[in-house]
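Journal club prep, notes for RB
We'll compare a predicted complex against what the paper describes. Inputs for the AN7 case:
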Amino acid sequence: MTDAPRPLLERYRALLARDGESFPITLGEGMTPLVHARRLGDELGLDQLHLKFEGTNPTGSFKDRGMVLAVNRAVAAGARAVVCASTGNTSASAAAYAAAAGLPCHVILPVGKVARGKLAQALAAGARLIMIDGNFDEALTAVRRLGEEGLAVVVNSVNPDRLDGQQTGAFEVVDALGRAPDALALPVGNAGNISAYWRGFTTYADAGRMSADAMPRMLGFQAEGAAPIVRGEPIEKPETVATAIRIGNPASWELAVEARDRSGGVIEAVSDDEILDAQRMIVRLEGVFCEPASAAGVAGVRRLAAEGRLDRDTVVVCVLTGHGLKDPDAVQAEEGSLTPIAPELDAIRREMDL
Ligand code: AN7
């Protein structure tokens, strides 16, 4: 055990912890790979394209970075339960950390649109699931009220500990590259992560761990049918195949706009087809399997590069926020048949088309 990596919050303790604070709950979050995507980069016209694969977190998404801090602090504050609204990943993460803390976890979900793997995770960890006949934004409104009533600690990103913990994604990117990238691209749903990355780069620069003159441009991408920030107004009925970012009124809207503007970045929309195309390209060219929402950043970068808005030598990091296994239904089989054939070599050879 002597060479076990230090837990994430210990590793960045100087930037995150309060005096004397301890973090007994950890599931081994963070320390995710940064993959130099050479084949995908070739395809997009970028020599320095890197994928920050958050699917290797304990519950398979970036949410664990903030959840670990939020739940440790909830326990220290004497919480009796935690509660969240979720398009899926927050609930999977909250359920896991609450289980580790021995706290009840309540999850309010929008009807029908949560990916199967995420539901399974929350159920398996013993969370109490409540599905409402409404969307994520309505679920979050209810959760905020429950929090105000003091019945449970809210662990959505309206809880500042969530975004503080998620800054560690930015810290790790800088540690891995030895500098900040020129641009950082990611999907935007409730707009917490883009805000947390920007805060993370700012925190790192303030601490002298990267140059304040080399802040990255923040490139955020919403799904076309759920693009309130791009349109400039809340979307009443958001729709997208990328269910994780099916959000019409993001809680961190203003912080995200600030990150965009201060960094000289953009927040734009990508279509469901562009998202699914990008998801397929990432796994077929790099072997990295992310969920549809996670591919929105790559879809956006692909378009910017094609339009000549990113030079070939730009150092670009795309954050792949969640694991593809969470949403197996989003993968369409194009080739191969799963209809059984005779267990005979000739038949198999014919089928293989060799
Ligand atoms: C894979 O789980 O909002 O812009 O309730 O699961 O910080 O919201 C998930 C969001 C991107 C968007 N990628 O991040 C939830 C939830 C994945 C996600 C986002 C989510 P934010």
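Talking point for the session: The pocket of AN7 is lined by residues 61, 86-90, 157, 187-193, 244-245, 291, 293-294, 321-322 (CB under 6 Å).
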